Amino acid sequence: MADARPRGRPPGSKNKKKDELPLSQPSVTPFQLRPSRSLTQLPALEYESSEGDVAVSTGLQSLDLAIQNITTELQNIRSEFAKSIEEHAKLISSLQEKNVKLAKKVDELKKRQKDQEQLLNKQERHSRRNNFRIVGIKQEKDEDCLKIASGILCKMGFPDPKLERAHRDGRAVEGRDRHILVKLSFFQDKVKVMKNARRLLEGENFYITDDLTKKDLSEKRRWRDQVSDLYRQGTRLHFSGGYWRDSTGKPFNFHHE
Predict the structure, then answer these.
(1) Where are the beta strands (DSSP E) in 106-237?
(2) Exposure pattern of 216-243 as b/e (b: 16+ CB <10 Å)?
């Protein structure tokens, strides 16, 4: 539609400057300034809006399905995990029972082994019961150990000692002479020798000691320092049968001395 506004200066503007003229009012209403839509566009907008709703609805359905699948998967995992824990708990319980049985078995075997070791040591101790060792005799070539041992016993007051054998024993160590191992025929003779050896051989450059098993020797050396301290204090002990013993023959308790 053509604009009906008259051309030229507005009415009343004659003899006035342009800057003094009042601003002209728009000839159209605000309603006319809004962009107009043709009727043919409205159905198209309604169609696009409907298509978006369908897409959102489909997306939500897919999300719900995915959540359901994840939930189902997690429930299956939880169920399998619970079963696995239960199976492992049963297995651990079974293993613990077996370990308890094995521990008891090991304790029994250790006790049996200890008993066997004590029995073997006792038997070895019995086989050495008539033996003693002479320590500190210089080793000579072609020496006669029986003659050496017999001479020492005669010097100690045994004029006719009954010797079964006498020989050097132990591994050779440079700078140290091996012991002379002596076996008497009678145990009582050995007891007399051991009882009087320290007194009768005082001042000699050799001495006599008992022929001990490896276990008994370890036990004797274990308390050697304590025995020396007790001797200086007036308590005398002697080693016999695998123990340090007091004057009454009872094993001495070093833990409550």
Answers:
(1) 131-135, 163-169, 179-184, 207-210
(2) beeebeebeeebeebeeeeeebebeebb
158-180 per-residue burial string, b: 16 or more CB within 10 A, e: under 16: beebebeebeeeeeeeeeebbbb
What's the CA angle centered on 181, arms 180 and 186, to 5 degrees? Answer: 135
The per-residue pLDDT for range 168-218, each reduced to its tens digit, is 998 888 888 999 999 999 999 999 999 999 899 999 999 999 999 999 999
| Coil, helix or strand at residue 207 | strand
* For residue 55, pLDDT beyond 70: yes
Q: How many CB atoms lie within 10 A of CB 42?
A: 10
Query: Which tokens is 67 given?
Result: 């959540």
CB 133 within 8 A of CB 208: yes
Instruction: Give residue 52's pLDDT.
Output: 67
Residue 197 burial (CB count, 10 A): 19
Distance CA 205, CA 163 (A): 23
Q: What is the 3-state secondary structure (H, E, C) of 86-124?
A: HHHHHHHHHHHHHHHHHHHHHHHHHHHHHHHHHHHHHHH
d(CA 57, CA 64): 11
Is the pLDDT confidence value at 46 over 60? Answer: no
Distance CA 63, CA 70 (A): 10
Q: How confident is the model at residue 153 (pLDDT cuts 50, 70, 90)?
A: very high
Cα–Cα distance measured from residue 64 to residue 70, given in angstroms and rounded to the nearest whole number? 10
